[in-house]
User: Which sequence fits this backbone?
């Protein structure tokens, strides 16, 4: 049954600027080579909860947000489930997470800013340094900036607003579009899904609510930016994206945090719903500092002929556990999951992807590229299920791991369950080191050892990089270069 | 200057100011086994030296050792490039100092676009200034080598045919303008057309600014790229040196007469026991089909 299916992301490759290559090179020259997002702002918050989570915390969050009763009810049920659920033990070591030490709700400002000038100065400076307002001016259709628990700034281009596109923070979404939110919230990821989805449902705050009306093509990306600032902070954003029939949307998220010795927790839930013929493309470039536990549940449903693409880059964090998933519910629907992970000294990147084929003529590709260095550890978990009756479905799973040192480690855990005969399936996994021959070849052309290794690593993850808009490709290449410092052992 | 082997080869004098590449008593190990047992060779700019030898005689080992492959350990001897200690340099330093190796089996590296790679290599060799003229130069070289512009967007050697790989090597050589270029069996695995393009590319580069070491298994290459000096490498040693006539003799009679001559002189040669090490006149094997015989292109 296993056949050679070429795993390509041609459809995903972004075609933008013909000068992309040149611009990439120019930009790379000027970028600093250190974790450049590691500063912190003084805490001058409007409200900060005490440490730990209790039923009172959950009720307090809901009360402060003036939520409808059903949401409070959901939160309470989820909280109870969180308490009853054991920590997952099948993946990365989570035993050091101390739920009692965390701050679960931090409201940095009394109100959300309509313009950047409305945002408190320190916070505005932080987003300035991260280049968000600049990116917004240059190439984004809308921006959402979340700081701790709340979205502090939010914008959407007027023309899109007129077309009926909704892009707002989740709390506003619940207030302003209660019917839509009530209808879809938790339908893709119920709170009982896992312990962290339960925790998120109990204490969620912020995140994005996106609705793209029928046939509307949002050609340029919407971006959400997530920043944790406080020590021991928990960030639990909740995102729901609904692309109505025939629409297209590209949503991008970026994440950073200061470098603290105390751990923080980022535990998001992201639900995507792609209606008939719709396309949702969701890109993440995660660059949390190395004291953040990043445990995120991301899942999508794709109806007839819809396409969902998860583009997932994990460079930062202490421990990441994240397996973007797609339910292919409609005939002809497609899932593409492309991920890249870089685990440096002390990091665990436990990532992958899951697809359930629940209809005929469905297509999925899961492509993973991971690089481990120092004692860093990467794991790939892929889960593919094709149900009986899903004839003429095609799936290809491919994961490639590169090890840069002797101590680092990479594991692959693919699970493939196929109940239908009439399908085409491909699976391939490789583990490689930087080859002596490749290194020698590049060095024999004058490239220094470091340059040569960087080129090889960049080449290795190129299938991922080429799916990113240029600005993010630049950032990614810079981050890789940064990680490569001292790669030559 | 040259410690000439026990042959009647013309003594090859280097000009005043020192040779471009001077190899003295070079010994090379692979995995603690000695493959090269003391080679002396001097190559100056403007010269073309051919190194002929049967399979397993150490030809490629010499090439890799000169370029600085980490697996090829130089155990004794000296090599100078323009008067500097070549052996003290890393592979990239050797390249930046004007040494080039045209690989027999170029490595393919996915994800690195040919065009970007060439630009990096040019920058490494000539500095930022080279980038300004890079485009123009590249276009010109591509034309000479009959290579399409689309090569530049392909991944480095990835999925290239044998001929495309060799052309890409010549392209790199032409752009990097080495002072000493070592060509390791560049003729192997090429069809007639590709061979001609490659040979033309090399001939176009010939001149007073570059010295060539052309390593080859067959004489074909040397009909297109006429050597000034010919050396026969057997058992890890240069056993005979001469002019172009030596290549003709090897082509007609194989290496056996040379071995007999050496035996008469009492010179001991360690012959490789590897499969494929033959000393009789060689016919091309099936894998290395020699297109010229079947096309009647050799004038021999």
Assistant:
């Amino acid at each position: 049954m296993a056949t050679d299916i070429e795993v390509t992301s041609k459809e995903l490759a972004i075609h933008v600027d013909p000068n992309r290559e040149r611009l990439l090179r120019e930009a790379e020259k000027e970028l600093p080579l250190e974790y450049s997002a590691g500063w912190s702002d003084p805490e001058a918050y409007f409200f900060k909860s005490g440490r730990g989570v209790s039923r009172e915390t959950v009720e307090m969050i809901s009360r402060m947000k003036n939520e409808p009763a059903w949401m409070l009810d959901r939160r309470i049920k989820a909280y109870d489930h969180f308490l009853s659920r054991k920590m997952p033990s099948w993946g990365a070591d989570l035993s050091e997470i101390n739920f009692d030490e965390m701050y679960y709700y931090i409201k940095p400002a009394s109100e959300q800013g309509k313009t950047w000038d409305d945002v408190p100065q320190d916070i505005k400076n932080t987003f300035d340094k991260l280049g968000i307002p600049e990116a917004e001016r240059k190439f984004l259709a809308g921006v959402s900036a979340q700081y701790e628990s709340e979205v502090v700034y939010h914008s959407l281009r007027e023309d899109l607003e007129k077309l009926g596109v909704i892009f707002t923070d989740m709390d506003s979404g619940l207030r302003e579009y209660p019917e839509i939110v009530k209808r879809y919230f938790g339908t893709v990821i119920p709170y009982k899904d896992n312990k962290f989805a339960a925790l998120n449902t109990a204490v969620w705050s912020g995140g994005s609510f996106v609705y793209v009306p029928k046939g509307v093509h949002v050609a340029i990306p919407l971006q959400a930016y997530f920043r944790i600032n406080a020590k021991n902070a928990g960030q639990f954003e909740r995102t729901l994206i609904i692309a109505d029939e025939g629409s297209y949307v590209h949503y991008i998220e970026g994440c950073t945090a200061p470098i603290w010795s105390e751990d923080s927790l980022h535990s998001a839930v992201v639900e995507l719903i792609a209606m008939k013929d719709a396309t949702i493309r969701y890109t993440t470039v995660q660059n949390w500092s190395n004291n953040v536990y990043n445990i995120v549940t991301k899942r999508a449903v794709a109806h007839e002929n819809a396409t969902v693409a998860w583009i997932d880059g994990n460079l930062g964090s202490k421990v990441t556990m994240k397996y973007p998933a797609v339910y292919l519910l409609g005939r002809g629907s497609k899932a593409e999951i492309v991920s890249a992970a870089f685990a440096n000294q002390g990091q665990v990147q436990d990532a992958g992807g899951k697809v359930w084929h629940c209809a005929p003529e469905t297509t999925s590709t899961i492509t993973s590229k991971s690089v481990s260095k120092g004692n860093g550890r990467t794991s790939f978990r892929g889960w593919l299920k094709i149900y009986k009756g899903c004839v003429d479905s095609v799936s290809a799973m491919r994961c490639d791991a590169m090890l840069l040192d002797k101590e680092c480690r990479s594991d692959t855990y693919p699970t493939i369950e196929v109940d239908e005969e009439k399908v085409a399936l491909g699976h391939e996994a490789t583990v490689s080191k930087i080859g002596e021959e490749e290194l020698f070849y590049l060095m024999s052309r004058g490239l220094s050892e470091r340059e040569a290794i960087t080129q090889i690593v960049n080449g290795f993850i190129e299938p991922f990089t080429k799916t990113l808009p240029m600005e993010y490709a630049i950032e990614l290449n810079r981050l890789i270069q940064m990680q490569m410092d001292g790669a030559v052992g | 200057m040259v410690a000439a082997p026990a042959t009647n080869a013309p003594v090859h004098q280097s000009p005043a100011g020192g040779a471009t590449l001077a190899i003295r008593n070079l010994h090379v190990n692979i995995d603690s086994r000695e493959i090269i047992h003391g080679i002396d060779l001097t190559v100056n700019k403007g010269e073309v030296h051919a190194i002929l030898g049967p399979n397993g005689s150490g030809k490629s080992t010499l090439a890799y050792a000169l370029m600085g492959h980490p697996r090829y350990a130089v155990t004794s001897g000296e090599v100078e490039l323009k008067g500097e200690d070549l052996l003290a340099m890393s592979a990239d330093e050797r390249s930046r100092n004007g040494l080039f190796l045209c690989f027999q089996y170029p490595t393919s590296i996915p994800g690195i676009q040919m065009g970007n790679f060439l630009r990096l290599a040019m920058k490494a060799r000539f500095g930022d200034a080279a980038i300004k003229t890079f485009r123009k130069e590249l276009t010109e070289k591509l034309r000479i080598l009959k290579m399409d512009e689309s090569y530049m967007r392909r991944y480095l050697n990835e999925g290239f045919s044998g001929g495309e790989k060799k052309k890409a090597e010549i392209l790199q050589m032409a752009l990097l303008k080495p002072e000493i270029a070592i060509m390791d069996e560049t003729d192997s695995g090429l069809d007639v057309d590709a061979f001609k393009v490659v040979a033309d590319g090399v001939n176009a580069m010939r001149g007073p600014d570059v010295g060539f070491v052309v390593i080859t298994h067959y004489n074909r290459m040397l009909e297109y790229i006429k050597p000034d000096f010919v050396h026969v490498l057997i058992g890890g040693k240069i056993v005979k040196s001469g002019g172009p006539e030596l290549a003709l003799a090897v082509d007609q009679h194989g290496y056996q007469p040379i071995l007999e001559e050496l035996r008469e002189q009492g010179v001991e040669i360690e012959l490789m026991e590897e499969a494929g090490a033959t000393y009789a006149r060689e016919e091309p094997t099936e894998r290395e089909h020699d297109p010229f015989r079947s096309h009647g292109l050799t004038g021999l």
Notes: The longest strand of chain A covers residues 292-302. Chain A has a mean pLDDT of 89.
